């Protein structure tokens, strides 16, 4: 089964919490803090596996979560780092952020590795908060949360040459003739329902990969038929072989077909439309009038396409000549990575702990200043509100964060209440 698009969820491991611990030994009655740090959470890493050719594995497994870091322990023992989660993907995989549809990574080389979600940092143990004036801190730092997001994986086949043209013009027959590929071949429309790849080998030239891309018909760039499903597979190709049915046995005009396919390529991507093309007039063995080919060639030449060949994939007429020309052209066309514009590229937001302050009416004409947000959650997890030294640290963090300055700018007065989640205290200047 050929699967070339999938939606998955990834989450890196949370960092382990720091430990609150004090040294307790028989002859050391006043042992100091010895809580160790938490371990780092595991990261989620994409790795290219050249042996994979489809995203089939992601049809059955959609959720990937890395291991969390271990908690810190006493005696200054650090928590174990979580194991990284390595996910194998085929070459040519595009990783997109699902919400914005922007590209995060293009994994198009054999050894490509990309960290898609970094593991959370481990929290500090209480021994790290020991100072000359705070010798017995009764609090530790929680681990940082891991990153998580929904992703869209897209597979864009890595082929040197792409076969394009209307259905039933002989692309699959041509592919089976010049490669060892065995595509399904029959005399009806949309015989090919998935891209087929084959390696072309000929004496005196380098081997190259050819792909038969199905589903391109009039309206394909707008999603008609299978167009949008497969147009992306020719984005990476360096050369297009455009196959038309010159016999006209189905009542279609070959030049009109040629123009319509190129219009669809242009609508989808100007760069794709501007790619070098070899134009192949197939089914020449069934041609009833030689002037039909000559007229077709003249019109195509007038559009600026000079490489026009007559071929019969069934009898192999002209096949060798076309393959040699394709091999020659590929030696002159450089290999380029997929170009990603700034508008298409995903830029991750800086991980910050934020807060907001809202004012509510309290009792006795006092105001209640409610502070909410991820910063509040993390701070309250880090302190022990029942310990004097921990509360002193708590107020220091609020002061350094600028929250007290902001409260004063908002007009807070003596006796007003400051509330952080379920914890509140009276403000005193």
CATH C-level class of the largest domain: Alpha Beta
**CATH fold naming of the largest domain:** Rossmann fold
The tally of structural domains comes to: 3
Rg, nearest Å: 33 Å
Beta-strand residue percentage: 15-25%
Mean pLDDT: 83
Largest sheet, in brief, is: 6 strands, mixed
Question: How many strand elements?
Answer: 18
SS summary, helix count: 10
CATH level-two architecture of the largest domain: 3-Layer(aba) Sandwich
Structural class: alpha/beta
Taken from the alpha-carbon principal axes, the silhouette is elongated
> What sequence of helices (H) and strands (E) makes up the elements?
EEHEEEEEEEHEEHEHHEHEHEEHHHEE
| Poorly predicted segments | 183-192, 219-228
The helical percent reads: 10-25%
Give, in spatial order, the strands making up the sheet with the most strands: 10-11-9-12-13-14
Family: Belongs to the TRAFAC class OBG-HflX-like GTPase superfamily. OBG GTPase family.
Domain OBG-type G: 159-331
Subcellular location: Cytoplasm
Domain Obg: 1-158
């Amino acid at each position: 089964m050929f699967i070339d698009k999938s939606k998955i969820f990834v989450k890196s491991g949370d960092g382990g919490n720091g430990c609150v611990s004090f040294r307790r030994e028989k002859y050391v009655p006043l042992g100091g803090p010895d809580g160790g740090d938490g371990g780092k959470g595991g990261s989620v890493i994409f790795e290219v596996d050249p042996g994979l050719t489809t995203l089939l594995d992601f049809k059955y497994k959609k959720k990937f979560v890395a291991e969390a870091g271990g908690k810190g322990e006493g005696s200054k023992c650090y928590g174990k780092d979580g194991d990284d989660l390595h996910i194998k993907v085929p070459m040519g995989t595009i990783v997109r952020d699902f919400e914005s549809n922007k590209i995060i990574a293009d994994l198009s080389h054999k050894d490509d590795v990309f960290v898609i979600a970094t593991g959370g940092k481990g929290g500090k143990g209480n021994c790290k908060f020991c100072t000359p004036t705070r010798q017995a801190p009764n609090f530790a730092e929680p681990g940082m949360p891991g990153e998580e997001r929904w992703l869209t994986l897209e597979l864009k086949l890595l082929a040197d040459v792409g076969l394009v043209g209307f259905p039933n013009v002989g692309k699959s027959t041509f592919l089976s003739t010049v490669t060892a590929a065995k595509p399904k071949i029959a005399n009806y429309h949309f015989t090919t329902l998935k891209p087929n790849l084959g390696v072309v080998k000929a004496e005196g030239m380098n081997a190259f990969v050819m792909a038969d891309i199905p589903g391109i018909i009039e309206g394909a760039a707008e999603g008609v038929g299978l167009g949008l499903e497969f147009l992306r597979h020719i984005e990476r190709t360096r050369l297009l072989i455009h196959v038309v049915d010159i016999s006209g046995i189905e009542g279609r005009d070959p030049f009109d077909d040629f123009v319509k396919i190129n219009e669809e390529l242009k609508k989808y991507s100007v760069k794709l439309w501007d790619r070098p093309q070899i134009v192949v007039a197939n089914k020449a063995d069934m041609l009833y009038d030689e002037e039909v080919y000559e007229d077709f060639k003249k019109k195509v030449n007038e559009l600026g396409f000079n490489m026009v060949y007559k071929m019969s994939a069934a009898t192999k007429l002209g096949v060798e000549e076309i393959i040699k020309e394709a091999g020659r052209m590929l030696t002159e066309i450089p290999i380029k990575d997929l170009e990603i514009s700034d508008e298409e590229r995903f830029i991750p937001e800086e991980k910050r702990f934020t807060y907001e302050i809202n004012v509510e009416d309290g009792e006795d004409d006092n105001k209640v200043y409610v502070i909410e947000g991820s910063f509040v959650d993390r701070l309250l997890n880090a302190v022990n509100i029942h310990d004097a030294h921990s509360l002193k640290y708590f107020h220091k963090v609020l002061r350094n964060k600028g929250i007290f300055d902001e409260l004063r700018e908002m007009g807070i007065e003596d006796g007003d209440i400051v509330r952080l989640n379920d914890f509140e205290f009276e403000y005193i200047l």
